[in-house]
Amino acid sequence: MALIVQKYGGSSVGNSERIRNVAARVAQYHARGDSVVVVVSAMSGVTDGLIKLAKELMPLPSEREMDMLLATGEQTTIALTAIALHAIGVPAVSMTGAQAGIVTDGVHTKAKIQNITPKKIKELLAERKVVIVAGFQGQTREGQVTTLGRGGSDLTAIALAAALKADLCQIYTDVDGVYTADPRIVPEARKLAEISYDEMLELASLGAKVMQSRSVEFAKKFGVIFEVRSSLNDNPGTIVKEETRNMEDVVVRGVSLDKNQAKLTLVAVPDKPGIAARVFKALGDANLSVDMIVQNISHGTGSPATDLSFTVDKPDLLKARKVIDDLHSEVAYVQVIATENIGKLSIVGVGMKSHTGVAGKMFDTLAREGVNIDMISTSEIKISVVVELARAEQAMKAVHAAFLG
Ligand code: ADP
Ligand code: ASP
Ligand code: MG
């Protein structure tokens, strides 16, 4: 008899038949005597639909109101899942994030979990009830509804598994596990039996939306071992855990593509101390996370100027643009160029620490495909390049074939 946290994503609860399917699986574990906490996402398409509605009314809606709005998606699914369990005779109780004791900071739309008090959940489990918790949402100490960033139900599940000291944490989704690349883009991609936290974290933050990156960070911090698997079959999934020695034998574990990035270029900013600090402080103060940054050394004499480029998440482009526009009088740039037509392609593997020639091989592969590289960034275990969006999937397939084919 184990304490199990199971998370079901949007497509796994996408209609009443799928919800029934979830209930049947939960019932099996419950019947075997396990204590089951189920975290569910909004039904597929619901969160996007709500965002679209709000943006029809106003391009930059209040983030507080967005949280109020988006939290309704998960609230629908918890009740439906509880009802589906009742229908097959399994005692179940649904809970919002707040009722489940999930306390967050007040950064609307990207709140961080500060603390979880799972007292009520434990009481219900002791009564042999299945507890269904709304993913993606929490509440501040002041009682404001918050959400945990897109894909945040993963974080709810991992955080609950940590708080409850669960024996098992299972992330059920619409693919059989974590693959060497998104199997919807690269059909040759292979399912991985296991992957390290660091690799999963890089893949997730570089666009592999199978796991929310913040949830992987949390899992690593608290040592929550979890399995990513399909809600549509019983195949074993992918185990995500601390790195083991033999993992370094593989140079590239996976390839990811992030189509959700946008690039801003400040053309001809004065090349003098304090400019970059001013720009990135202002972006940070607006809670905008900047990813890649490229700035060249200026040439020539007189008043040297250089271009400063950086990437942000696509949904943040408008907000970032506004921050930059407001800085114009302080940072005397000539022009701002904003584009959404980029893709960030990355290769990830802990084995890169001990192998050379990986970047050369990647760039050579892109050159042979005729794909131009716009920006480059590397870390010990990853190499990322920004390329033209229209060529990004072709580039991904070629790079996957070169390293993992
Ligand atoms: P859920 O609704 O269950 O949270 P998501 O849509 O957020 O599911 O994530 C699952 C999707 O992630 C898959 O359908 C797949 O297209 C995509 N994906 C991207 N990269 C990978 C990868 N490396 N391995 C598996 N799936 C991936
Ligand atoms: N419903 C939220 C989203 O679409 C959270 C999640 O699915 O994990 O981002
Ligand atoms: Mg998801």
Structural features, described:
- By secondary structure, the chain is of the alpha/beta class.
- It is 35% helix and 26% strand.
- The protein has helices spanning 16-31, 46-57, 63-87, 119-126, 153-163, 197-205, 213-222, 275-285, 317-326, 358-369, 389-404; strands at residues 3-8, 35-40, 92-95, 102-104, 113-116, 130-134, 137-139, 145-147, 168-173, 194-196, 226-230, 238-241, 254-258, 261-270, 290-295, 305-313, 335-339, 342-348, 375-379, 382-388.
- An eight-stranded mixed β-sheet has the order 3-6-2-1-9-11-12-10, with helices on both faces. Strands 13-18-20-19 form a four-stranded antiparallel β-sheet, with helices on both faces. Strands 15-16-14-17 form a four-stranded antiparallel β-sheet, with helices on one face.
- A hairpin with an 8-residue loop joins strand 4 and strand 5.
- The model has no long low-confidence stretch (mean pLDDT 96).
- Bound molecules: adenosine-5'-diphosphate, aspartic acid (ASP) and magnesium ion.
What is the tally of beta strands? Answer: 20
> How would the global form be characterised?
globular
Query: What is the tally of helical segments?
Result: 11
Question: Which blocks of ≥5 consecutive residues have pLDDT under 50?
Answer: none
Structural class: alpha/beta
What radius of gyration results from the CA coordinates? 23 Å
Q: Residue share in helices?
A: 25-40%
Which molecules other than protein and nucleic acid are bound? adenosine-5'-diphosphate, aspartic acid, magnesium ion
Strand content: 25-35%
Order of strands across the widest beta sheet? 3-6-2-1-9-11-12-10
What is the terminal-to-terminal distance?
42 Å
Q: How many strands, what sense, and barrel or not for the largest sheet? A: 8 strands, mixed
Question: How much is the average pLDDT?
Answer: 96
